[in-house]
Amino acid sequence: MNQPQPPISAMSDLDAISAILYCVQHQFSGQLKIHSASTPNEDWSLHYYMGRVIWASGGVHPLRRWRRAIARTCPGLDLSGLKFPSQKDDPFWEYNTLCHFQDQQQLNRKQFQKIIVDCIIEVLFDVLQKSQGEVLLGKLREETRLNKPRVVLKGEALLNYAEKQWQQWCEADFAAYSPNLAPVIANNALLKSSLSDKVYRRLSVLVNSRNTLRDLSVIVKKDLIELTQSLMPRIQKGALELVRVPDLNGKLTPTQSSGGALTTELKQTSPTPAPKPEAPLIACIDDSLQSCEVLERVLQEGGYRSFFIIDPLQAIPELIARKPVLIFLDLIMPVVNGYEVCAQIHRVEQLKDTPVVFLTSQDSLVDRVRAKLVKASGFLSKPVDPDTVLDTIERFVATPNSTEDTSASE
Question: Could you list the residue range(s) of the whole structural domain that residue 293 is in?
Answer without folding.
Answer: 263-409
